[in-house]
Amino acid sequence: xxxxxxxxxxxxxxxxxxxxxxxxxxxxxxxxxxxxxxxxxxxxxxxxxxxxxxxxxxxxxxxxxxxxxxxxxxxxxxxxxxxxxxxxxxxxxxxxxxxxxxxxxxxxxxxxxxxxxxxxxxxxxxxxxxxxxxxxxxxxxxxxxxxxxxxxxxxxxxxxxxxxxxxxxxxxxxxxxxxxxxxxxxxxxxxxxxxxxxxxxxxxxxxxxxxxxxxxxxxxxxxxxxxxxxxxxxxxxxxxxxxxxxxxxxxxxxxxxxxxxxxxxxxxxxxxxxxxxxxxxxxxxxxxxxxxxxxxxxxxxxxxxxxxxxxxxxxxxxxxxxxxxxxxxxxxxxxxxxxxxxxxxxxxxxxxxxxxxxxxxxxxxxxxxxxxxxxxxxxxxxxxxxxxxxxxxxxxxxxxxxxxxxxxxxxxxxxxxxxxxxxxxxxxxxxxxxxxxxxxxxxxxxxxxxxxxxxxxxxxxxxxxxxxxxxxxxxxxxxxxxxxxxxxxxxxxxxxxxxxxxxxxxxxxxxxxxxxxxxxxxxxxxxxxxxxxxxxxxxxxxxxxxxxxxxxxxxxxxxxxxxxxxxxxxxxxxxxxxxxxxxxxxxxxxxxxxxxxxxxxxxxxxxxxxxxxxxxxxxxxxxxxxxxxxxxxxxxxxxxxxxxxxxxxxxxxxxxxxxxxxxxxxxxxxxxxxxxxxxxxxxxxxxx
Amino acid sequence: xxxxxxxxxxxxxxxxxxxxxxxxxxxxxxxxxxxxxxxxxxxxxxxxxxxxxxxxxxxxxxxxxxxxxxxxxxxxxxxxxxxxxxxxxxxxxxxxxxxxxxxxxxxxxxxxxxxxxxxxxxxxx
Lengths: 688, 125
Description:
- The structure holds two protein chains of two kinds.
- By secondary structure, chain A is of the alpha+beta class.
- Chain A has 16 helices and 29 strands.
- In chain A, the strands form eight sheets. An eight-stranded antiparallel β-sheet of chain A has the order 7-8-9-10-17-14-13-12, with no helix packed on it. Chain A has a five-stranded antiparallel β-sheet with strand order 3-6-11-16-15, with no helix packed on it.
- In chain A, helix 3 packs antiparallel against helix 4 (about 295-305) and helix 8 packs antiparallel against helix 9.
- Chain A is globular and about 85 Å long.
- Chain B is an alpha+beta fold.
- Chain B has one domain (about 5-105): SCP2 sterol-binding domain (Nonspecific Lipid-transfer Protein, Chain A).
- Helix content of chain B is about 25%, strand content about 25%.
- Chain B contains four helices and five strands.
- A five-stranded mixed β-sheet of chain B has the order 3-2-1-4-5.
């Protein structure tokens, strides 16, 4: 898919276009106007007297509004266009608005034919990259100066309604304006495109549901300012750190998404534009990372995922009682059960992570009410780990998909089909127990025990969970440790054999606390060694492993969120210098991309490229990468809530210089955190 | 009792707490068409239990459906959320109770085996 398209967006409503503002969607070029996981415009092509338009400039201040400055015809270095066009577009009140202005620069009157070709294929978002024969019927209606495009399949109906402030000649393929502009005269029309998700009675089904009206551009701009004003302020001597922090705050604002189920709250969506939806892992991890700056995201995420928690066994959706979902979608292929995202539950990590987030959220905010309100959900999640996650009855959390046709093979965060392999490249046989899942399960049980003891008044349950956690820790350290190499196996396969690849997964074990301290130093040495540490960050898979490929997402690339969790884990075990090196490497990467961390970047040695090479990706920003700078800051500042206080133990790398994170919100109210990097004697490479 | 819909609601009212969380509270009214007149069923959910009434009382969420669609969901032949996405029924009010329907109706009959995947084939144990 092309990733150089320009866009405006509001949650899951977005317009993705060419750099002249046109939409001409193809399988290879998935532009369009999208809402509720459906494409409502696949063609939106502007011509002036039959000629296409060429961009001179695009003004893209933020994700709210976009302006294109265009001239007719192909570019030459000597542009003496006698006319030009400005397109200004935004998403406002849930509709796509475009203001079209034609300027006559000539000293004579000129006749113009302005034509807008309009069409929609109503493609479901999950299928825009595929050839597909729609099962339903398309229709077009010209009515009262408006164009209505529609699609119907049984009772399922979608319509696009295009209207214009200036009178237009409307036909079934678009709108035409015939103008005569005097010398130096301009002409403007405002186009409005509404996406309608129609019910049987001809009304939009969303209008029947309780939800506030969708916000206008002005309201959203105000909200963005308020969001930035509310967040802690970072000042730091290292400009890359402040710009990454600022960029992440702005991007996190854009990623906020209000689901139909919780219309008055916002959860972080997984990525823009293609993953503006409810997800389990991405929303949980991002909310965890963002706790020091925006703890309300965690509350909404816990509510949302609690409401959608699995209730029954359903192979198609990989659903089980107590399981936390992977992804929710609304498009046609989901409605007619060609795709399982209604919601799909094929993740083995989301359920323990849910309990971890609930506990961590309470530690930061003191919001005991939420912990009490979601007791049943948290208990069901903990029960799922043993009843359904322990597939072989050997005490390990494993996964095997129920949905054999469209389900995911790998259900940890490394979910590509070949992600879990042996050092020699052999793929591991299911059902797999990856090491980080055991860490999450251990941590979830211990945190669940704290919640049971302090808030649910169930000390017996707390004791049982702690006993289970201790047994899991012992068992895990016996079965996963590869003594001769001094690291943990990536997984146990279905036969209980170690899957011995050296991978980043064991870094998460430090976050979970399942590693005995004597072994932690060996794990840290591997993470920071040349095979795993690229100079920018910890690779997903070490060089020297048969399947290592620096460009492979899960078999060599470096993921900022993975590194943020690793840095936090290193810090927890006292490896402050190592945590600082990871934080410094990742923030350095952000500096190459105007502060915006890519979801992942290539695992090349830093010495080889001198420049971080982005992996091909479709989403930018990606939520978990957006949240990474917050957790990295937490790691270098050593922030840990303890009772009513926020403990701080800054160990700041010299590169950062002085770091001040002001007004960190939590149960303590607001507090300032100040740390300072040690001055680096010349030639020593800093404090290490 | 010959009417399957009446039998379904009667069983809801009698069922022990299980799939509903104790703190889930709210009301749902079903308006079912296709019989002689519109049928009203009103559910009050609290403390893990469901109270059923035939009165046309206000509710957090109103589900309007024909009896055939409802019957298919009550038999576990259609999943409520995808049925809503297909416009097989309409929902007014709070969407969270549309999500909750999955906890009221039986699991989909085509769902495969309950329990851990692989249990049925003996592959896992």
